[in-house]
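hey m, so remember when u said the tokens were messed up on ur end? i reran from scratch. heres the input so u can diff it against urs
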Amino acid sequence: MLNAVQVLAENNFGDTRTGGLAGPMGLFLIVLLGTATVLLIRNMNSRLRRLPERFPHQGGPVGTDSSATGPSDGTTGQESRTNPPSGHQQP
């Protein structure tokens, strides 16, 4: 048991006092992630600015009867119930 703990606690990362690559590499990764974040935020802002201010209303409010407002194909609720579309329709 003690032998397993000693093996796990052993420093297998080499000599950490020489080389000194961890600091500059960490700084590089932080700057890279920060730059990527700034670019993503700018891209999303430009895409949001291109969206219309309001979207067309596509359905009734949640929880209301959809037959009261009628279907979105331009027919009234009664027409769509009595004459269901069949096959190919001419425009």
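this time it looks ok to me. The mean pLDDT is 74. if urs says something different then somethings off w ur setup not the seq
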